[in-house]
Amino acid sequence: MHLNRQKIRATNYRSSKKVKRKNRRIKETKIDIKKRVGQRGPVFPKKNEIRSSKNLSKKNNFNKFLYLNIKKWKGKLKNNVIFVLGNGPSISKQPLHLLDDYFTIGVNRIFYIYDPVILFWQDINLWRSEREGIFRSKAIKVCRDFSDPQHYFMNFKLHFNPPKFMSITEELHGRGNSGMIAVQFAVALGCSSVVFLGMDCKYNGKKTDFYGVNKDHKPHTLDMCHDSMQWLQKKCPVKIYNCSKSKYWPKVELENVLKEIDTPKGNKEYFKSIFQKKKK
């Protein structure tokens, strides 16, 4: 009887050591994954996010299954002028209604004042704080895969710095400024030139953006914006018209740009149809 107890204790001891070793391996693997994926590791939606998203998704105005795979968007807007709408304070004074017949890519919270053809973002914090507004927007939603945990929208992969023009729509490069990434996307779509509105890299008093103070702005946000604009100034393969308060290009009035450019016109539904699957 005594020998049996000793055997049982020895067996239990060995099995507990195995469990500890297994748990240690699992922990080390998780740490290794975090190092390879990024500083914070992979981001998964929280339970309360999933629940609230499911409730709000009923208000979603976008059905991604009507659209072609984003890989097939390359060159779809050949010879079109694309208007890139940032969130800088100067955009609040622009006559945005004049853009209704042109192709627009609006960044981040632009839907507060204008609904573009494409709503574009790369930061998951925008999704977490503005999902209701995102769902209600009638724009085509295009964002980084990391920032769309439930995969409701059209997604691209975003690689680390340095930024580069690769002329593909499903993979973009660089961090720190959504406008710069949106220009990469516009070039991959085939645009002949881009027009900047609200790409200021400049505050207006205490206002970081046209709507007030962006709580997600960090001390380095402006520096990264300037770095991105300098890169575009040197590397952008198409002409840039600047209707913003940016110091990197001569400023032109929007009305004068519209008189100068020669680009296809159409309403937003027409431009959306370019990316939609053909009905059989």
Description:
Helix 5 links the parallel strand 7 and strand 8. About 6% of the residues have low confidence. The chain is globular, with a radius of gyration of 24 Å. The protein starts with a helix and ends in a 7-residue tail after the last helix. It folds into 2 domains: 41 residues; 208 residues, sialyltransferase cstii, chain A, CATH 3.90.1480. An 8-stranded parallel β-sheet has the order 6-5-4-3-2-1-7-8, sandwiched between helices. It is α/β, with parallel strands linked by helices and 280 residues long.
Topology, element by element:
Elements: H1 2-37, H2 47-56, E1 81-85, E2 103-107, E3 118-121, H3 124-136, E4 140-144, E5 154-159, E6 171-173, H4 178-189, E7 193-197, H5 221-235, E8 239-242, H6 254-260, H7 268-273
Parallel strand pairs: 1-2, 1-7, 2-3, 3-4, 4-5, 5-6, 7-8
How would you summarize this macromolecular structure in one to three sentences?
With 280 residues, this protein is α/β, with parallel strands linked by helices. It is built from seven helices and eight strands; from the N terminus they run H-H-E-E-E-H-E-E-E-H-E-H-E-H-H.
Provide the structure class.
alpha/beta
SSE order: HHEEEHEEEHEHEHH
What is the number of helices?
7
Net shape:
globular
- The CATH class of the largest domain is identified as Alpha Beta
Largest sheet: 8 strands, parallel
User: Helicity, in percent?
Assistant: 25-40%
CATH topology of the largest domain: sialyltransferase cstii, chain A
N/C terminus separation = 79 Å
Low-confidence stretches: 28-44
Strand content: 5-15%
